[in-house]
Amino acid sequence: MKFTPLIGLTVVTFFFGGIVTYLCLGRKSRPGKVAELTRQVSQLNIERNRLEKEVNKGIFDILAIYEFTSVLGSITNLRELYNMLVDTILRIIHYDACSILVTDPETKNLEMAISRGLAPEIVANYEATCIDKGIIGRVMQRGQPEIMNDLKVLPWPDNIYQDFPFNSILSIPLVIHGEILGVLTLYLRQKDGFKRDDLRILFIIANQTAFAIKNGHLYEKVAEQATLDGLTGLYNYRVFREQIEKEVARAQRENRCVSMIMIDVDDFKSVNDCYGHQRGDTVLKAMATQLRNSVRDIDMVARYGGEEFAVILPNTGLKDAVVIANRIHQTIGTQKLDGLQVTISLGVAVYPGPGVNSADDLVCKADTFAYQAKFRGKNQVYH
Fold it and tell me: Which of 258, 232, 264 is nearest to 367 (CA)?
């Protein structure tokens, strides 16, 4: 068995207790000596209880940190990570409010990832100003943690905390390989609320969190690349096929309908031949933007392949689908894409319908109708 400080204190306590008992029972015991030894034993008991509480608190903190870090590698959803982080910290360090601000990988703007206990106006003000002001601004700029236990008395001029409902702040950067990914901040209403021990614990958690955030950004980027077309930013063919299968199955199950629009850019080869493939790519990007703006939020736009696009219209009959198709046709036909006037041919089909009994039938029918629109002179909707 290992000899720990707690066991040592227990042994000492019993040792002094035995001495006191011996002296009390001995014939030559002196009242003053007994009183002094009794006082010392009482102090040892108090110290032992204090150390016991510290040891138990330390064990609890270590277990909480271990539980948090042991699952970090399996978390790929950043929202789940942020929620788990603030819950774990609350088990270890008491706070009245907390916030995690992170920098967007693309824009580098500081955005509120999660907040607890902060009023909406404080959150809005933070996103607008704390990148270069206040304690969070200092942490972002210097890459060093800050503890302020009286916000009414700051060592630098700053009015960002006027009418602020908190008096103590503990703020620490989320850093990996010298890159500051964001700032984790805790707030308390009372003064002198945070200690250096709180900072040491938070430092361990922050380091592990920074790695998890970086991995989460990488995972999201890879996942996005797997679902989106690299040129247009629309959903790719694989996602389109999965979604059309789901929508047809849902329509069959719920006795509803689902429509599809196939869109083909007319004479796109001539655009590439006359202006080059780079200009053609720019036209396709502009086309994708127009298509997204021409459909509803529930609809799905995908790049089917080359200069072909597909739109899935859930819970939409043929009549309404034709209205949407005509709107798309008119929008594209009346606007120039990257300075070029292009036209499109559209085919509209619905499930269930004549000869349409499956997802494959629906795709085939819409594609056939788009071909018919081209065959009949292009620049039109056929259904």
Answer: 264
Look at residue 170 and tell me if it is in a domain.
Answer: yes
Quote the distance between the C-alpha of residue 368 and its chain's center: 42
**DSSP SS3 for 153:** coil
* 267 and 378, same domain (yes or no): yes
Q: Are residues 97 and 206 in the same domain?
A: yes
CB atoms within 10 A of CB 332: 23
Element (H, E) at 95: none
How far apart are alpha carbons 340 and 131 in whole angstroms? 42
> What is the helix (H) or strand (E) element at residue 166, kind and residue range?
none
- Give the Cα-Cα-Cα angle 11, 13, 15 (nearest 5 degrees): 70
Amino acid symbol at 221: K
Cα–Cα distance for residue pair 193/198, rounded to 1 Å: 10
**Strand, coil or helix: what is 124?**
helix
State the pairing for strand pair 381-382/344-351: parallel
pTM here? 0.54
Burial pattern 197-228, b for ≥16 Cβ within 10 A else e, equals: ebbebbeebbeebbbbbbbbbeeeeeeeeeeb
**Residue 110 and residue 253 in one domain:** no
In this prediction, residue 27 carries a pLDDT of 47
Spatial neighbors of 263 by CB under 8 A, at least 6 apart, are 291, 308, 309, 310, 311, 328, 344, 345, 346, 370
Estimate to the nearest angstrom the gap between the alpha carbon of 328 and the chain centroid: 34
Angle between helical axes of 134-142 and 120-129 (0-180°, round to 10): 40
CATH code of the domain in which 163 resides: 3.30.450.40
Which helix (H) or strand (E) segment holds residue 361: the answer is: helix 359-375
Its domain, for residue 58, covers 5-69
Quick count: other Cβ atoms within 10 Å of Cβ 365? 22
Last residue of a domain, one of 54, 69, 84: 69
User: Is residue 231 assigned to a domain?
Assistant: no
pLDDT digits (tens, 9 = 90+) for 267-299: 988 888 888 989 999 999 999 999 999 999 999
